[in-house]
Write a structure and sequence with these properties.
Helices cover 40% and strands 30% of the residues. It has one domain: Thymidylate Synthase, Chain A, CATH 3.30.572. The chain contains 9 helices and 7 strands, in the order E-H-E-E-H-H-H-H-H-E-H-E-E-H-E-H. Strands 1, 2, 3, 4, 5, 6 and 7 form a 7-stranded mixed beta sheet that branches. Strand 6 (177-190), helix 8 and strand 7 form a beta-alpha-beta unit. The chain is globular, with a radius of gyration of 18 Å. The chain has 240 residues and is an alpha/beta fold.
Length: 240
């Protein structure tokens, strides 16, 4: 497993890994869009970053990816608030990234949202809190996004299904104090369009739960079935 000191270091190394080690492949669907989508892909990719204390690293990350820092921070803040509070589908955070998300609205709603999955039928944050409060060494504090009953019928581009599968929270003692770690498992992650948002939001979710438990945040371990970049996005970076 790759261990990075921060988000920007992770971004630079992952981009290099995609270029040097990524395999060329073409998929027939992207979210709910049907077509031919040439990509470079790493499968079974795993890495670790600190879960907190990233400070100026977010600025450097946005600069490296060519993103607007204010837009990035606003979206993360709004989306985190909706996940914590269970805002109904479609919510408002998507409007910050309207150019990315508007095309996925159907009859005024998305096929799913993270807040919807986290809170349906109950608040999974609250469940994870109760599990860990009762037993800090538990391996059962799992927040799950993928639902086999809802998502099995939407494969092949019929409709969008969650890229994120689970967030598992584990508390272990390090340097004589309890630290809360998160193992974040994804089936699929688009490096240039979504990866940084997914990673930072996972860190913010970790920090939120750790603060509720009055523990310190530990590490975020991210494992991705398919970590990829589309040909069109690689061309913009003058890499492909």
């Amino acid at each position: 497993m790759r261990i990075y000191n921060g988000f920007t270091e992770a971004a630079k190394e992952i981009e290099r890994d995609l270029w040097e080690l990524g395999a060329n492949t073409t998929t027939k669907s992207m979210q709910d869009k049907i077509g031919e989508f040439p990509t470079k892909e790493l499968i079974g990719y795993q890495f670790q970053v600190p879960g907190s204390n990233y400070g100026e690293d977010i600025l450097l990350l946005c600069d490296f990816l060519g993103w607007e820092h204010e837009k990035f921070s606003t979206y993360v803040s709004d989306e985190l608030n909706e996940r914590i509070n269970g805002v109904p589908n479609p919510g408002k955070s998507w409007e910050v990234r309207r150019d990315e998300w508007e095309g996925y609205l159907h009859d005024g709603k998305f096929s799913y949202t993270y807040p919807e999955r986290i809170w349906d039928p109950t608040n999974q944050f609250g469940h994870c809190y109760s599990v860990l409060k009762n037993d800090p060494s538990s391996r059962q504090a799992i927040l799950q996004l993928y639902d086999k009953h809802k998502d099995f019928t939407n494969t092949g581009g019929r409709n969008r299904i969650p890229c994120s599968l689970t967030y598992q929270y584990l508390t272990r003692t390090s340097d004589s104090e309890l630290k809360l770690h998160c193992i974040y498992t994804m089936r699929s992650c688009d490096f240039y369009r979504h990866w940084a948002y997914d990673m930072v939001l996972a860190s913010e979710m970790l920090n939120y739960l750790a603060s509720k438990l009055n523990w310190k945040s530990g590490n975020l371990i991210m494992q991705v079935g398919s970590l990829h970049a589309y040909h069109i996005d690689l061309e913009k970076r003058k890499i492909f």
